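Need the bound structure for cytidine-5'-monophosphate, inputs here:
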Amino acid sequence: MQTLTNKRVLLGVTGGIAAYKSAELVRRLQDQGADVRVVMTRAAAEFITPLTLQALSQNPVHTELLDSETESAMGHIELARWADLVLVAPATADFMARLVAGRGDDLLTTLCLAAECPLAVAPAMNQAMWANPSTQQNCTSLADRGIHLFGPGAGLQACGETGLGRMLDIEEIVIQTAGLFTSGVLAGRRVLITAGPTREAIDPVRFITNHSSGKQGYALATAAIEAGASVTIVSGPTHLDPPDRANCVFVTSTNEMHNAVQEAVLDVDIFIGVAAVADYRPVSVSEQKIKKSAAPSNKGITLELVENPDIIATVANSEPKPFTIGFAAETENIMEYARQKLVAKNLDMIIANDVGDDDIGFNSDQNRTTILWPDRTEALPMMSKSALASRIIELIAETVEKDD
Ligand code: C5P
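Answer from helper R.:
Posting the output first, comments after.
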């Protein structure tokens, strides 16, 4: 299970021989799901090239405070805001002294001053430098300010001496990094969500669609991310900003949504079909705008429709099947239709709501739903779509855990 899903780690690398291990550290943090960006001091760049860390982190490596090019891409304040954690590994004695003094004489120390997220340092230095009272006093000051100290470890050092001062093993740094974050109920799970309406073209200017706003699907994506999941949304057209940290695929028609889901579903644990998918599409799309004069007067025109693929049923009948949750938006016989859908589509859970009531459902910010499982039912009170999303995510997590 990944322990750092959705977490943004700003890795500071300072100039000690252990800097060569930072390349491995970038990889291992990424293995745990972290998004890693690297800042190096000038001295660090003497030990390992910025290009190596850039290639591994897949992001530009920042080294200079006063570099207009990198500042225009992502300035130091923006970088500090971006991070959920600043981790400095290796941290030299000099860097720790500058951190204690509150210096801002290079990019990394300035970032540390600007960062409001937790800060952790993994010291790495010769054993005598580590034992020096100045370094020891600096460590105490850092710990007193709530800065996390990872290590150092003991053993043979690059200089040939033995003792305390080696940078902790990479695996241990990763474990201690993960330990700084509380893991949510969906930690490490991969979730795919469809959201919003789909649109079926009639001609170049007209289409068939529905009232779905995408609010419930986007709220569920946000709640799943907060619960530690790695989330992909396949979304139809909406006016909403995509949730931060979600991987988004934007589509228009049901067929496009179907294809995008088929591709993304291959490696997910949980599928939530929230989209209000158009069940039918015109048999053919007119290449030119259909003219009013095309119809004999008073006769109107007839649109012939064909059935669209049922996206959720395809997912729920695939092998291996992810844990599959559907929505049933109904205007009458809500519970009866919802249970029929749960069975017919082979779902693990279904969330039923009354879209005939203007105060809840489609465009509203509120929703009142009932959740059905194959063996039980739970009615939830009226609540905001974001509160409902958090409750649904909790219930999904409980059910998935029981099934494991
Ligand atoms: O049958 P109905 O459209 O009411 O079922 C609703 C559920 O099925 C929702 O979860 C919706 O996202 C999903 N669905 C789908 N593909 C369709 C139709 C509905 O995934 N073509």
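Comments: The longest strand covers residues 323-330. The first helix runs from residue 22 to 31.
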